[in-house]
Each structure stands twice: as structure tokens, then as C-alpha cells.
Amino acid sequence: MKLKCYSVFLLTLFLLEGQAQSKSKDVLFTVSGDSIYTSEFIRVYNKNLNLVQDESQKDVDEYLNMFINYKLKLKEAKSLGFDKKPSYIRELGTYRQQLAQNFVTDSNVTDALVEEAYDRVLNEVEASHILVRVDQNASVQDTLDAYNAILKFRDSAIKEGFETVRKEAHNGQTVFGEDLGYFSGFKMVYPFETAAYNTKVGEISQPFRTQFGYHIVYVKNKRKSRGERTVAHIMVVDKNGDSIAANSEIRIQDIYKKLNQGEDFEALAKQFSDDTNSASKGGLLSPFTSGQLSSQEFEDVAFTLDNIGDVSKPFKSNFGWHIVKLYDKKPVEPFQNLKSQLEAQVKRDDRSKIIDKALFDKLKAKYGVNNHQPALAYFGSLLNESYFKRSWQLPADFERDKIVFKINDKPFTYKDFGDYLVKNQSNASVKETYTDIVAKAYDSFLNTSLVQYQEANLENENEDFANIVNEYRDGLLLFDLMENVIWNTTQSDSLEIQKFYDNHKENYFFPERMDAIIASSAKQNIIKRVSQLLASNMDLDDIKNLVNTDGEVQVLFTSDVMEASHQALPDNFELKKGVSKIYKHHDAYVIVQIKDVLPKKIKTFEEARGEVISDYQVAKENKWLEGLKTKYKVEVNQESLNKVKSQIKNQ
């Protein structure tokens, strides 16, 4: 579940252990009689000190003011009954249940599986396999037949060659022979993955079983996994109204020609890349790993570059046309960097069964439950054919009050187990005996009860869990409060928003801009010629044909309405109609023809709508907070505040 949030301040700064029981009884301030302790304030302040970006938030007085505002909002949310809403209670319960899964586990077994998974992420296996399908609930004879069949395939594969037998055996129904290519950890079900990684190159595994049936796997090769790449790129997208670069493919090819003519990649990226986030950095992107990007085409090209400095040919992705340059390549990240991600994956796949068994054994020992099943013949004697039809019910004379087992001092009765049998009768197979059904159901019931008991008592057993649940509880309240009081009032506040715009319209404007053509070249003599041609008012297409000849791109042109801060313009460029002087910019020579200067212009309400609504909401929230300070009396204990300041200063 994704945590709802509306500001870094409220949900990152103050939703950390905010409601934990205070050991110190020094009251820092009260909100209508509710005490807020110094220990909570200091803990939150210290824990978030490195997260704040506004230096004013490190000032204790400023931080205290924000903390008081946070507590006022919580007080108001509860006053309005947001903590009683069914949707709030339901979402908090769902979050608590999901969070508990991270705390109800056996960490030692999990850690071992995570380390094993990391080793497999470091390496890839190339393999083929043969599968004989058999259902998990198949009869003993069907299971034996499938096992004997896979043994025969293995014997034949050893004599005749695995690939030959694989192709002959495959029928797409009961037998599957597949070439799997390369894969790494988490790409296959865990038993299959384990067999593949434990089999040497060139060898065929012993038969093993998954939920699909019996397999043998032939390992062709093993190699190190692809790691991390750092690249820069030049990206070109189609721009409406740009007659010079209307065809993005032609433009990217022109840039590529300039690269082949020896011009600098970074300089060209700064001038012509349409990815404004990376253009100012010479096209440099953040490092990425295989599967991390949203463009497979881009990723594939990046990983084919072998040597630092290699540059790709132009290629197209779903974002536009690119040229990519390799800056760095690294192996798979260190274990500590990937540990949390791997742990989450381990808990989602078949490895979780190993973790579950370790947890059940641990809880049995913790709560004093032995491993011996009680006499279950009584329950087996109650079952009949209706159980397989999902219509079985407990008989009227059922011995409901007897105890099956206890967890700590909590008894679980025959009635509890009987109800579990009724609820789960759909899981039974007609191929199972009544004794097997009851025995399997008992193990499941006991394990489920152990986990549920621990989950119900987690707040008492684990302080970290209690703190995180309280963080989310408050965050959910604040989100609902702000959504209802501030954010979702745009429609009803339409007249007030318009009035706010009318009173502050001077804050919303388009800066001075220009309608211009920018010409850029690595050669000063050519740019001088372009300057003369532009001054003579020659058509731009004719100028391009004159200076870019014989398949070479000597000059790149950009035509657009732009601000003086445009990436292709030199710093502090003066907006003045006519043809400019020649500038040296990003290792190139640049001239600008300004056809028109568009003066600073106040935005209409519709043009500024987003900005206006945002500013209006801030102003409304500030006014609302002032009202809360009147509604709820806040009293600060100055003596405690002085102690807090002294402690923070000396830490």
C-alpha cells in the first residue's frame, strides 16, 4: 500500500515515532490540555535533521512552530471525526496487516536466503529443460509414471545429447522441451532456479519437482550478470511549428554527422538535445541497471557499448531519436545496496515457504506449543462425501468446548478448529483420505493461529512496529483533513480563487521573450557568412542549402520563441531585434537573429490557473492555521524549551 502524503514536512518530518510512549515526563507544550513531551520533539528533530532542505527548519524555534502546526492539525482531524470514518479504519487496518508481514518472520533464515539470492543475481545461467507435467494433487501412480518418464528422458539425453531428446520429446501437452536462454535469480520458480544454479556447465541435473511437474535441466553456460551503465545522450523530438527541425530523424542524422566531423558530444548536447533535464550537463544521465529504464530500445543500445567513450549510431525509442555515449560501466551493486530489494523478492516467491516453516517453529517455541499433533481421529470420523462437495457442516452433537491447543494462555477449542475445517473444505481433493485432510488442516490452522496471535500482539512485542503504525495513523488523518479542508475545495472556492488572482495578478507573468533563429557552428568563418546572409534577409532554407553542402552539416539552426535563458544562447544575452554579434558558447560559434521581442506579459487567469490555485491553497491554509490557534489553546513550557535548545546545542 502506498502511503498517502501531501508534504515533505508533515509526513516525512513529523510522522516518525510521533506517538510513541514518552519515557520523559517533561512537557514541552500542550494543545487544549493534551501534553506533548520534550522527548518526542527531540527525537523527531534529530531523526529528520539531515532530511530538511530549508535551513530555517533547523532552527529550534522555527521547527517548534511547524511541530505545533502539525499537532494542531491532528487535533482538528480528531475533532471533526476523521478517525471514526469507516474508510479510515479500513485503510489503517489493511496497512497494519501488510506492515506486520515485515515483522512476523524469521530473520536468520531470511538473511541466508537473501545472501543466496544476491549470489544468483550476480550470475546468469543459460539452460534448456524437459518437463513432464503432473498435477500437484495427482494420484500416487500418476506421480510415479511422471517420475519414471523423466528418468527415461535423462538416460536418453545422456546417450543421444540433450538438445536432440528435448526437441523430440516436446509435444506441448504433457511433455515440454524448451530452450530458456539466459536467466538469473528470481526469473524462475525457486526449485527450478536452485537446480539450474547447482548444476555444472555441460551437465544434466537429476530429476526434480516443481508445481508444474518433474524436470531435468541442462546447463549450457554461466556468465556474470550485466551491471550498471552511465551514459550521456542527445535526444531530438518533433516540435510543432519548427520548420528547420520538423523531421526529427533528419535533425539527429545532422547532429551525428557533426560528431563524425570531430565536434564535441557534450557541446552538441548542450545546444541541441531536447531533453532539458540532461542537456545542461552535456546529456549526462544518472546511472541505471538492466530493466530500470522505461525504454527497452535505449537500454539495449546502452549495454552494447563496450568501451568508455563509445558513441552509438542514431536510433529511435518511444521518446524520440537518440545518440548515446558511454561514460562508465559498473558490475552489479554491492550486497548492502540491494539487500532490502532482495529481501522483498525473497518473501514473495517459493523461498517464503522456507521462511514460513522457520517462523512457525520459532513461534511454537516462543509460545510453548509442542510439535505433536493431538488425536485427530475424532475430526476424521466426522467427515463424509459432502466435504468434497463443499456442503459439509459440523454435526449438532459436536464436542465444541474441548481444547485443541493453547498459545500462551489463550485456548483454541474444537469449535475453532471445526469452523476452520468448514471454511476451508474447498481445498480438499477427492484423492486425499479423511485422515490426511484433517492432519493437513490442523497444521495449517495451528500455523495460522500462531501468526495471527503474534500479529495481534505486535504493538506490545515490538516498539518499532508500534511507532510505524502510529506514524501511518497520523499521516492518514492529516491527508484526509487537508484533502477535505484545503485541496478539494477548488470548485466551491472558484470565486475566491478568481478574487485572489485579481489581487495578485502581477505575480503571474510571461517574462520577456524573443522570436529568433539561432545558428551554431564549430567554424568561425562559416558563422560569419551566415551572419551576412541573415542580415540580407535571405530565406532560411536557402541559407541552409548554401552552408551545409556535400552531406556535411556545418551549421545547425534552431528557430523558436524562447527566453533569454534558452540553452543555446550565451549567458546574459541581450534581447534586441536584428542580427547579433558572434558569440563563443559551448565550444561553438553562435549568432542570433531576433525577428521580434515579446515584452513581459501578465498571464490571463486561465494561463496562470495552476499557479494561482497552488498559491491560493497556501494562503488559505495559513489563515486556517491561525484559526486553529484560536480554537485550541497552545501553551509552551519555556523552561522545557530552554532545556531542549541546550540539549540540541550540545549534542
Automatic annotation (TrEMBL):
The keyword Signal applies. Coiled coil: none annotated. Gene3D superfamilies: 3.10.50.40. It comes from the Bacteria. Residues 122-221, 226-328 form the PpiC domain. Keywords: Isomerase, Rotamase, Signal. Pfam families: Rotamase (PF00639), Rotamase_2 (PF13145). The keyword Signal applies. Residues 1-22 form the signal peptide. GO terms for molecular function: peptidyl-prolyl cis-trans isomerase activity. This is Peptidylprolyl isomerase.
